[in-house]
Design brief:
It is built from two helices and two strands. With about 70 residues, the protein is of the alpha+beta class.
């Protein structure tokens, strides 16, 4: 993704097992950009599908987004 750096990290699942994962961190000069509305919807769908905690889903749903360029 342009503007982001893929960074390895370790995460734990609900059982406490550790896994290797990757996160994308904003690395471009200038202000951080809001996510596109379609990307935020994709994240929310995945959070619900995987049964993430309701507090996290509410927090994610409150993230401001910007219109998709093709909308």
């Amino acid at each position: 993704e342009p503007g982001y750096t893929r960074t390895p990290c370790r995460v734990r699942d609900a059982s406490g097992d550790r896994h290797e994962a990757q996160v994308y961190l904003w690395s471009s000069p200038g202000p951080e950009q809001k996510p596109f509305a379609s990307y935020l919807a994709y994240l929310l769908e995945g959070a619900r599908e995987h049964g993430l905690p309701a507090d996290f889903i509410r927090h994610l749903a409150a993230v401001p987004s910007r219109p998709d360029p093709d909308a």
